[in-house]
Amino acid sequence: MEIKGYFDEGKPMIGICLEGSEDSIDVLVDTGFNGELMLTKEKIEELSLTFIGDDEYMTASGDVVPTTVHMALIKWFGRTRKKLS
Known about the structure:
Number of helices: 1
Number of domains: 1
Radius of gyration: 13 Å
Order of helices and strands: EEEHEEE
Number of strands: 6
């Protein structure tokens, strides 16, 4: 299985499928990927993702930003995997 991506205004993008959604979502490929996904509040509500708790993350500029954490199931290379978003 292979993943085909594309560039959107010079940014590397791929489509992923989340459990609970019939359509794929186009996401930015983060070269500093830490194993977690960042989704908009609207997408989290649309998919009714389970709330896990509150956390913080550090941006590339070093700023610390508060966020909420939810559980998402993604379909990746033919397997369903749990991811935090």
